Here is the input.
Amino acid sequence: MTRRQVIEAGTVAAAAMASSGALAQGPAPAAQGQPLPDGVTLPSSAPPAPRPGSVGYAIIGLGDYALKQIMPRFAQSQRCHIAALVSGNPEKLARVGEAYGVPAEARYSYENFADIAANREVEAVYIILPTGLHAEWAERAFAAGKHVMCEKPMALSAAECARMIAASERAGKKLMVGYRCHFEPYNRAAMELTRTRALGDLRLIRTEHSYRLGPATPATNWRIARAQTGGGPLEDYGIYGLQAALYLSGEMPDRLSASTFRPEGDPRFSEVFAHVAVQMHFPSGTVAQIVTSYDSAGINMVEARGTHGALRMQPATGYGPNALVLETGGTARPLEPGDPEVQFAAMLDHLAAAIREGTPVLTPGEMGLRDLRLMEAIYAAAASGRSVALNPDGTMRG
Ligand SMILES: NC(=O)c1ccc[n+]([C@@H]2O[C@H](COP(=O)([O-])OP(=O)(O)OC[C@H]3O[C@@H](n4cnc5c(N)ncnc54)[C@H](OP(=O)(O)O)[C@@H]3O)[C@@H](O)[C@H]2O)c1
Here is the structure.
């Protein structure tokens, strides 16, 4: 197969990953119920009745992020509510359904999900499943006539993203990626600072998103299974640094180089990488360095440096608290642009508003596709050891 054919088949990431360290791959993913995660607090009383015109969401996948971050934040939303739940664990589904006041007839399994088409209370679904299941469940949701919010990363490959966008177009329904930082005050303030050239001409961006998978991380953790997660830390966590480099520069890179590493003999890394490091060059001359790891002490950092100043964020892209320090003229000034926690409800309300008003979404499927193209280029660059030239849409040139 020539390189072009590989690209056209949409299997670049898989091919590049496979050739850059003989990564194993387990079986294709299937939706399967899981136990209630540790440390979940369920609401002690059901939410109030939805406001008139509120958009009903179905939550698909009652895991850690759904139960600890997204579902509780509906209480702060203005334009949406939880109207249905979808889970493969019937006991958990009943317990969570009771706590959130979701009636039994609006609780679905993965097997009877198609019945949701007849539920007029549900206008959108929020896919909070392992990444390897995003494309399939987005297609199922569109087939049921629903709008889709999909967690990051949008899917495992650009080819899957393209399938999801096509399904959204066929259904005439919206597709939004849950890139919450676009709704988070510190990141929005940072975007505004670079957009208004408060740092002068942007020269350097550095991002690092790392944490350590526990040494005893079980083999059942989907985050170490390539068929569920892709290459690992880049898709899961480094994606925040990739996003930040793009929204702070306001540009698409024209070339990039990268390296990946995985230690031999560590069962956590038989299918995914331990570290990924990326260097991007932008047409303006700005350079970005994006580092991410599944095997080093936690850090969540973004820094942008221009000709006249810098901004530093650490933590940068968390649930909150985040930090933003502006350095200009020899002084460092911490900024407090707002409560980071609003990001969740603002994101949920944004899709609801777009549905009601027919307006475009800020983080559409095309943005998720762009990011998967860049990730495929990153893995191809790492596999070849050479820098990769890019088209403005993120596809590899030549
Ligand atoms: N935006 C963010 O800040 C953020 C943060 C964390 C995670 N995420 C994203 O959210 C998604 C879910 O992550 P998570 O941390 O919530 O994962 P998780 O805790 O493992 O939950 C995933 C849920 O998906 C369902 N599921 C269906 N088939 C599964 C299978 N084969 N293996 C494992 N789970 C399966 C299960 O729900 P049931 O038992 O109800 O069926 C499970 O509880 C991912 O796309 C992740 O990237 C985003």
